[in-house]
């Protein structure tokens, strides 16, 4: 072909973009409801759902509204839910995280009985929602997060969550050895079938901001001594190797959008399912910009989800899971 400006190669890629039907047919990445996972918060001691101001549209649930939202997710075909508990009382060791009647365990029981056959019920396995200092583990005499003492707590948490009937636990505290300890603890009580979704590459991110409100976090300071430095990719691959060796059934990269390169590397590396967590700050950015009329909300949501899939995620944790599933 030629124009008055000279020759160009004959190919015309635009032919495949001419109509909606053509674009749909040649799309390389598709989303389906089954690969979406909805994170949900259940809070003790409230009589009505509480809005989370930095996450418009997301609430802290009562036990009742949690059941309903889980049923709604299941009806939309969502693949799974990830539960977080918000207790009334916190203490230094996060006692409510290991109480059989702690709010998360009650929430697990409720949703397993409600929707347990229709979707996968998962729970966050971490202490930060339950500790008065807000860290993901227990502290030593100097106030540092004590890795090995924390592992003992995680083992107990895994067991009470499994007893409550959860299908998958998600250790998210970034303690060394957490996957192996959780696996042993589950096996010890005959819960071989409870799977582990390992938070493998979890970065110390500013984008967790709104989540802190969602779980009434009491954290002062940061989590930089246990979560990863945003600068590092090789370190994520080291964490990955360790998690797989310790028995992770699925692995996760978190946050999602600022770490698509990490996600791609992890996806290329493994032969287990890979999840990505589109976190609270990613949600809040889109909602805030859309509320200002600066971006098209629905298109932005689908574009972010498609990008995360394209980068190699099999599953995506997203606060838009039910809505996106309904649209698909
Ligand atoms: C820790 C945990 C966090 C999130 C999920 N699990 C908070 C943190 O590490 O500070 C963040 C999720 C989000 O921001 O949406 N239990």
Model description:
- This protein has 328 residues and is α/β, with parallel strands linked by helices.
- It has a single domain (32-327), classed as TIM Barrel (Alpha-Beta Barrel).
- Helix content is 38%, strand content 16%.
- The strands form 2 sheets. The chain has an 8-stranded parallel barrel with strand order 3-6-7-8-9-10-11-12, surrounded by 8 helices. Strands 1-2 form a two-stranded antiparallel sheet.
- Helix 2 packs parallel to helix 3.
- The chain starts with a strand and ends with a helix.
- The structure holds ligand PBG.
- Ligand PBG is lined by residues 124, 126, 128, 136, 172, 208, 211, 223, 279-280.
Structure at a glance:
By secondary structure, this protein is α/β, with parallel strands linked by helices.
From the structure above, extract its key features.
globular; 38% helix; eight-stranded parallel barrel; 328 residues; 11 helices; two-stranded antiparallel ribbon; binds ligand PBG; TIM Barrel; 12 strands
């Amino acid at each position: 072909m030629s124009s008055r400006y000279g020759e160009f190669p004959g190919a015309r890629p635009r032919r495949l973009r001419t109509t909606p039907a053509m674009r749909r047919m040649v799309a390389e990445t598709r989303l389906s409801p089954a690969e979406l996972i909805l994170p949900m918060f259940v809070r003790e001691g409230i009589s009505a759902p509480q809005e989370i101001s930095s996450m418009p549209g997301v609430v802290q649930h009562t036990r009742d509204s949690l059941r309903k939202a889980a049923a709604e997710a299941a009806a939309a075909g969502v693949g799974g839910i990830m539960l977080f508990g918000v207790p009334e009382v916190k203490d230094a060791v996060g006692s409510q995280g290991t109480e059989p009647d702690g709010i998360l365990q009650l929430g697990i029981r409720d949703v397993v009985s409600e929707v347990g056959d229709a979707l996968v019920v998962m729970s966050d396995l971490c202490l930060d929602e339950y500790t008065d200092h807000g860290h993901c583990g227990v502290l030593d005499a100097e106030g540092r997060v004590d890795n090995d003492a924390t592992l003992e707590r995680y083992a107990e948490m895994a067991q009470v969550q499994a007893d409550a009937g959860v299908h998958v636990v998600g250790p998210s505290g970034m303690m060394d050895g957490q996957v192996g300890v959780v696996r042993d603890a589950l096996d010890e009580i005959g819960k071989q079938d409870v799977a582990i979704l390992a938070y493998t590459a979890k970065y110390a991110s500013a984008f967790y901001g709104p989540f802190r409100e969602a779980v009434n976090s009491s954290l002062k300071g940061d989590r930089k001594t246990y979560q990863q430095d945003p600068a590092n990719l090789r370190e994520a691959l080291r964490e990955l190797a360790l998690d797989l060796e310790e028995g992770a059934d699925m692995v996760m990269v978190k946050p999602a959008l600022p770490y698509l390169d990490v996600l791609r590397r992890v996806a290329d590396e493994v032969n287990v399912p890979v999840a990505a967590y589109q976190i609270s700050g990613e949600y809040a950015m889109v909602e805030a910009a859309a509320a200002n009329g600066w971006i098209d909300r629905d298109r932005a949501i689908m574009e972010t989800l498609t990008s995360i899939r394209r980068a190699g995620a099999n599953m995506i944790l997203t606060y838009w899971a039910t809505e996106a599933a309904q649209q698909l």
